[in-house]
Amino acid sequence: AQSVTQPDIHITVSEGASLELRCNYSYGATPYLFWYVQSPGQGLQLLLKYFSGDTLVQGIKGFEAEFKRSQSSFNLRKPSVHWSDAAEYFCAVSTGTASKLTFGTGTRLQVTL
Amino acid sequence: ETGVTQSPTHLIKTRGQQVTLRCSSQSGHNTVSWYQQALGQGPQFIFQYYREEENGRGNFPPRFSGLQFPNYSSELNVNALELDDSALYLCASSTRQGAVSGYTFGSGTRLTVV
Questions:
Q1: What rounded mean pLDDT belongs to chain A?
Q2: CA 20 to 30 Å from A59, out of A45, B34, B53, B78?
Q3: Cβ-defined contact of A99 to B41 (cutoff 8 Å)
Q4: Digit-coded pLDDT (tens) for B24-36
Q5: What is the distance in angstroms between the Cα of B17 and the nearest Cα belonging to chain A?
């Protein structure tokens, strides 16, 4: 069965600093990979997704992620964080186009001014 | 294009009671998935409905059941509530190929069992 690990429970960065959130997955083949963001009391909003092709994918709000097959990783990055980026971030995998999403435990991002 | 609406937004139930949560489906979507998100955890897949039939189930007991209606809206029913059922319940609508077309999540129902 597939699994997702987000090693960082909580990260604090200063506004304007760069950000990298880590995600590692376990699956025998290349899964479909996603990053979602959740603000307090809200549902999940898709930031970006990877299926195949170019391993660097661009998403909304200035986020990007890089798929590294050799490391089974799909890390999320942003060059300059804004205070409004403070939220919970979830990495997720799916093993097929119609399959369920398996989420990691999330990383809470705090942004200091 | 309408989004996904979940109702109610919050509710409190007593252990042993039954609860029904509701979820609309975004226009053009025919699949609804339900997830349970305990405090401090990622969402866990409960089950998925496609064209009114259950189409995949996670590791949840039979007291978690669901329905999908002809308009593709859905209900999640939980019987014999336990304290551990306290969580945020999220639904997501999609086309059959959700991973490709995208999942639209509702804002969730916060269930507290006392």
A1: 94
A2: B34
A3: no
A4: 999 999 999 999 9
A5: 25
